[in-house]
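Structure ticket #2291
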Amino acid sequence: MIKITVKKRKGSYVSFVSSGHAGYAEEGQDIICAAVSALIINTVNSIEKFTDDVIETEEKDGYVSFHFTKPVTEKGTLLMDSLVLGLTDISYSYKNRYLTVKVKEV
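Resolution: structure written out below.
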């Protein structure tokens, strides 16, 4: 199962962590892992290219994390809202069996 935790402080995004594998299908055939990876990678790339936000990232097999080094901008917030929406929709589509998304206020 992929476990995603998004942390916010006073309504502003602080960090994102994704760990695990969906286990929906064999490696290379897992459409849930592919969809989640595409959303995360696109969001990280978009934040870096289209905003003034600065993020620090870490990635290894089955794990991606990033955090904002200063308060997130309006554009960064929109991109993060989109990421959370997409991931949540995937989670609901599969009844939370392969992916969970938690947004926590810290």
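Closing remark: The chain has two helices and five strands.
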